[in-house]
Amino acid sequence: MNRERAKELREVFNAFCDGKEIQFIAVDGSMIWEAALTPAFHNRAYEYRIKPEPQVIYVCSFQGSNPIVADSISEAPFGWAAKKFIEVIE
To answer: pTM of the predicted model, to two decimals?
Structure first.
């Protein structure tokens, strides 16, 4: 691994050291990110990333109104029902 490759992977390497989940994808065109239990950071056949955190949104509704999307429950208008949705990342 050369210095430039190490700079590219610094954030991912630090996250791996901190216990965060790392994912890899083959550079040859694979479309699926997979868990990298033992990443081979020196291997240029793979790209690496820190597994993204799932996005949480709230869909708020009120009888007779169009639903709205909010980033937190506190953003829901008073009296509106809010349902929590969590993105699934595999």
So the answer is: 0.65
